[in-house]
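User: Batch of two.

Assistant: Item 1 of 2:
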Amino acid sequence: MKIAIILNGISQKKKKFYKEIYPALTDHFVVEVLETRYAGHAEELVAMAMNQEFDYILAAGGDGTLNQVINGLLKNGSDNLPTIGLIPLGSGNDFARTCSLRPEAKQLIQLLKAGPTLTDIGKIECIRNGEKITHYFINECSLGMGPEVVRRLSKSARWWGPDLSYLISIVSTFISHRPQEIFCKANAWTWKGKARVIAIANGKTFGNAIYIAPDANAGDGVFNSFIAGDVPLWKFLMFLQTLKKKRKINDPHIHYNTLARVELSSTEECGLEAEGEFVGLLPATITVLMGKISFLR
């Protein structure tokens, strides 16, 4: 069994990986580690690994590293894809939370020996630099405050830690954010209004353990949607605490639904992010690709 590990080269947990996880894996499998050196490098490394016919490609990093690995996989192949796995070494680790994954060699070896599970993927078709593009995600994508929170997070001080960094970025974004008029058209429902956040989720959480979709199942062929309308700051902060406790919100400004495909549009310029990375602008179509990849979970 040949395993390629795409390691986030600037991960703060890289020492833990080389000290505790890598040696244990090499006792059981043939392992090659490929470290990222710059933004977008993970996609290139995946393409290289696919040419070498690895059985497994593992993302060692956070949600962003996993997102790049997924895109590298699906943009460079269609048949006989290698199995994907995740060693959660990031700050938010939201998809790892959905799958109960830990940065531990023992659990990873058990998963490798047990084999993968078919897992859904999201396909985004939107606009970037004036051209139509396709992008994939495994955990979530969002619009409204999401892209601005991502931008602020990228500039936040690392010593704050993930919890405080996310909270500061969310609150500061809320203060400056102006809700935009969004139109959503899904297979069985529609929604139109001014939105603070619209999230399409395959996993249960985003933004470091904010449970927007506590009922989500990454292999059921549907996504869960979460829409937060135009709510004041004090109420939004209350909602955040409710979501952190894994509870749904009962309020006329909050809407939950499921979908297999949704079209999103706006009369204003509106950005879209996926897994903490800016993707593009509306209009966009998001579609579930049921059981698209084999994933260790």
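Item 2 of 2:
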Amino acid sequence: MNAWIVGQAIINGFLAGGVYSLVGVGMTIIFGVMKMVNFAAGSYLVWGMYFTYFWQYVLGGSASPYLLIPLVVLSMIVFGYVSFKLTVRRVLNTSDTSYILITVGLMFFLQNLAETFLGTRPLSVYVPETYKNGSITLRALITRIVPSLADNAALAASPLGSLNLGFPRLIAFAVMLLLVLGVNILLTKTLLGRAMRATAENSEVAKMLGVDAERTYTIAFILGVTLAALAGLLVTPLYYVSISASVAFRTAPLMVIVLGGMGSIKGSFFGGILVGIVEALVTTLVDTQLSVASISILFLIVIYLRPQGLFGKKMRTA
């Protein structure tokens, strides 16, 4: 088997897994604080794509999607706030079944809303040619990061050094890293983060200590869906803007958060990377039709060996 093909598949999967990680981290924040799995994450991702298309159209159609991140974030803050207040807020502190029903219903509502007002015709976001079809070899990337390796003979002779990293996936992965680091700082170094962690640990005790639980739930939900929307923005150079894109991101992120361990940011990050690599290897080396099956098999193996997930904590039993 050609080592270059396997290496290229791993690189592609590693970078593509960053998008799964970003959506998974958003879902993990919502689950950690609210104990609710957001089944509508894929629909929010698609709305992030639509907001990217909308703002690019408003600004004349030539703005790079990466420059639209602040506008998409602002749009999703408003969109997430309104959808939270009209739907999720009404079932707070009820049963898990209510959470499932409201988020599944929200998923279909957001899809139908997009189809009603924006149509079903696939749209495309303009991406400068430099970014859309550009790439850099792994060797060139390493030598740019570590200039002292420019004359390294082993690196120059290795066929793996000629692996290509496409700019859209590389940029998406880099932005994902920055966002995940930002979320980690928010949760560990800020007063808001402490309030969110306290609410996640025990909402009743947090309320007694003066934490506004509903405000914390609102912020957690908005943050989670905004990360999903940013993932949508980052994949616009790779996918048409269409409601059908939500199908590709409906199952994988759910598996990512379970694989990584429910409530674990680190688990969602590494779980997304693992899912991306397995999916890319199976798609490249076996059959493109088996990508979902491969993720499902990985899911079953991990859950069988480690029911709490890769980074999840074991529940204490009496």
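The chain has one domain: 9-244.
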